[in-house]
User: Fold Integrase zinc-binding domain-containing protein from Onchocerca ochengi.
Amino acid sequence: LLIRRQHEALYHAGIAHTLSEMRRKFWIPKGRMEVKRRSRTFAQIGLDYLGPLSIKIENGVTKRWFALFTCFTTRAVHLELLENLSAESFLHVLRRFISRRGYLERQCKPIPTSFQSHEGPTPKLSDFLAEKGMTWESIIRELLGVEDFTKD
Assistant:
């Protein structure tokens, strides 16, 4: 709790800076490891889509999209290529992202209509997120002026 509070008070500073500020008041055994564990990037992300972009391939020109993952804490960006906007294509992208960056604690995204029914995300996607212990919070497109952190 102390580490998280200090990390947030320093506006999500790096590991070394957070640790040095913590050590002014407290000595934490294995401090570097504890700070590192608490400030993992891409634990909480926002997700949006770019495209379609016209890409030239062997057979001609085709459309492709990008998934734009933005870290809530560091504002770091990660891009993944999507062949289409199907839920299956998104699951492949999400699995690639998780294999590189680790599991998500929370994700916020405007959900394309191809990923959801009127109740929310498709059952296959919901099952995958539940199995991995991740939560899904959708952002209503009309409120993006308030919530949209990916446009900075």
Summary: The first helix runs from residue 2 to 9.
